[in-house]
Every structure is written in structure tokens, then in C-alpha cells.
């Protein structure tokens, strides 16, 4: 049913749950798992004094590269065909959810597995939800894996 599974990873406990679910799904369908880490462009902050957004971006890329290497090892040890990719947001208007949707389309994913923190109320309103933004624009099936709600 699902030959290409795209799973979003960011190192959080919730994304670890999503990866575990993607592994289970891939074993059931003998699927290829493509793990994606999205690097969001650091915003220009004019009121915080000097900082170099290129250094912040560089640290995001380093962290994502390391996480993807660990993820590939996990998928390989599970006996699954796998790919990893680091994707950067492009342009001023693209956010993490939009970059994930772009990757889902470009990679030909049959399903996208993504974790959600399960926040409600004020915490949800203030922090927003990448998963919620993603499912609003997704053109492929989405499997949401809910983590423990915090707040």
C-alpha cells in the first residue's frame, strides 16, 4: 500500500515516536523510508543586538546532519531501505510545514508520518503547530503520531 514513507525528524521525543511508527509501517509494507530534517531560515532579529544568522543556520545544518546520520543507522539496523535528506526553507514566505509539503511532493511520498505535541489552549495558540499547518496543505495521506501533551 505505502511504498514510499516520508518521516519528519527533528530530534524531539515526539519525532522519535513518529520514526518508530514509520519503522513499523515500513516493515508491514516493505517500504522505503525517507527521513527529512527541515532547516528553517533564522529570522533577522533587529532588537537583540548583534548576532550572525549564518552561524545559527550553520549550527542547524550540523545538528540536522548528525540527526539524519543517526536516523539512517536506526533505519538500516531495522533492515529497511532508507534515504535521508536535509531540506532548507526557501524564500521569505516558506515555513517548515511548506518545505515539508514541497519535499513530500518532490519525493513522491505515499504517506507522511509526523509527530504532534498535542498542545491545547494557550500553549497551542502561542506556539502553533507545524503538524497542523502541514495537514492543512498536505496532498498525500498523513499519519499523525501524538506525543505526550505538555501544557
UniProtKB/TrEMBL annotation:
The family this protein is said to belong to: Belongs to the universal stress protein A family.
Top-level division of the source organism's lineage: Bacteria
Annotated UspA domain residues: 1-146
Listed CDD domains: USP-like (cd00293)
Compartment(s) where it occurs, according to its Swiss-Prot or TrEMBL record: Cytoplasm
Chief subcellular location: cytoplasm
Keywords of the record: Cytoplasm
Cytoplasm in keyword set: yes
Key word tRNA processing present: no
Signal peptide stretch: none
InterPro entries: Rossmann-like_a/b/a_fold (IPR014729), Universal_stress_UspA (IPR006015), UspA (IPR006016)
Alphabetical list of SUPFAM superfamilies matching this protein: Adenine nucleotide alpha hydrolases-like
Record-given protein name: Universal stress protein
Amino acid at each position: 500500500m505505502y511504498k514510499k514513507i516520508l518521516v519528519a525528524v527533528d530530534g524531539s521525543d515526539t519525532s522519535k515516536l513518529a520514526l518508530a511508527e514509520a519503522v513499523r509501517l515500513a516493515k508491514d509494507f516493505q517500504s522505503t523510508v525517507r527521513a527529512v530534517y527541515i532547516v528553517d531560515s533564522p529570522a533577522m532579529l533587529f532588537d537583540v543586538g548583534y548576532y550572525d544568522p549564518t552561524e545559527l543556520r550553520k549550527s542547524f545544518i550540523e545538528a540536522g546532519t548528525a540527526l539524519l546520520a543517526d536516523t539512517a543507522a536506526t533505519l538500516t539496523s531495522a533492515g529497511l531501505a532508507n534515504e535521508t535528506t536535509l531540506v532548507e526553507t526557501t524564500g521569505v514566505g516558506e515555513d517548515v510545514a511548506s518545505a515539508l509539503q514541497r519535499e513530500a511532493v518532490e519525493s513522491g511520498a505515499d504517506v507522511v508520518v509526523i509527530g504532534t505535541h498535542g498542545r491545547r489552549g494557550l500553549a497551542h495558540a502561542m506556539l502553533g503547530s507545524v503538524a497542523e499547518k502541514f495537514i492543512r496543505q498536505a496532498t498525500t495521506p498523513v499519519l499523525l503520531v501524538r506525543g505526550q501533551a505538555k501544557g
